[in-house]
């Protein structure tokens, strides 16, 4: 599984962890419905692999979202609503992350290579 988070929002470690949690959970729930066989394989491996990547901006995150839609792969766009954490979270809906999978690596390799791993 993968999560792509927006680097431009400069989220605190706690905020970033929460957004990743939302993205992983929601993408997994969608995958249970869309691709139960792949989800079963993923769950059967124990904890499964999870990678967190950065997108430079909303535009680059939306590009991955559209690519995943076209490929008909399970994904979930996380929109933070109503929270105030200045300067980027003003209470307005804010796209923060994109959860992907479970998927096979070769299904998303072309999409994911545009993003950098969080260190």
Q: What percentage of amino acids are in beta strands?
A: 15-25%
Report the mean per-residue pLDDT as an integer. 92
Structural class by SSE content: alpha+beta
CATH architecture: 3-Layer(aba) Sandwich
Q: What number of domains?
A: 1
Shape from CA axes? globular
Roughly what percent helix?
40-55%
- Characterize the largest beta sheet: strand count, sense, and whether it forms a barrel: 5 strands, mixed
Radius of gyration, in angstroms, nearest whole number: 14 Å
Under CATH, the homologous superfamily reads: Bit1
Q: Record the strand order, biggest sheet.
A: 3-6-1-2-7
CATH fold-level topology = Bit1
CATH level 1 name: Alpha Beta
Low-confidence stretches: none
Written as H for each helix and E for each strand, in order along the chain, the element string is EHHEHEEEEHE
Counted beta strands: 7
GO molecular function, one term: peptidyl-tRNA hydrolase activity
InterPro entries: Pep_tRNA_hydro_II_dom_sf (IPR023476), PTH2 (IPR002833)
Family: Belongs to the PTH2 family.
Protein name: peptidyl-tRNA hydrolase
Describe the structure.
The mean pLDDT is 92. The strands form 2 sheets. This protein has a 5-stranded mixed beta sheet with strand order 3-6-1-2-7. A two-stranded antiparallel ribbon has the order 4-5. The protein is 45% helix and 24% strand. The protein is globular, with a radius of gyration of 14 Å. It has a single domain (2-117), classed as Bit1 (3-Layer(aba) Sandwich). α3 runs antiparallel to α4. With 119 residues, the protein is of the alpha+beta class. One of its GO terms (molecular function) is peptidyl-tRNA hydrolase activity.
């Amino acid at each position: 599984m993968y999560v792509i988070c927006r680097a431009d929002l400069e989220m605190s470690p706690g905020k970033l962890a929460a957004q990743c949690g939302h993205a992983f959970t929601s993408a997994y729930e969608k995958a249970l419905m869309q691709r139960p066989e792949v989800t079963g394989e993923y769950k059967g491996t124990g904890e499964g692999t999870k990678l967190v990547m950065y997108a430079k901006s909303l535009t680059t995150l939306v590009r991955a979202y559209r690519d995943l839609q076209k490929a008909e792969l399970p994904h979930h766009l996380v929109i933070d609503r109503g929270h105030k954490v200045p300067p980027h979270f003003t209470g307005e809906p804010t796209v923060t992350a994109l959860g992907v999978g479970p998927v096979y690596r070769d299904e998303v390799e072309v999409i994911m290579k545009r993003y950098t791993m969080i260190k």
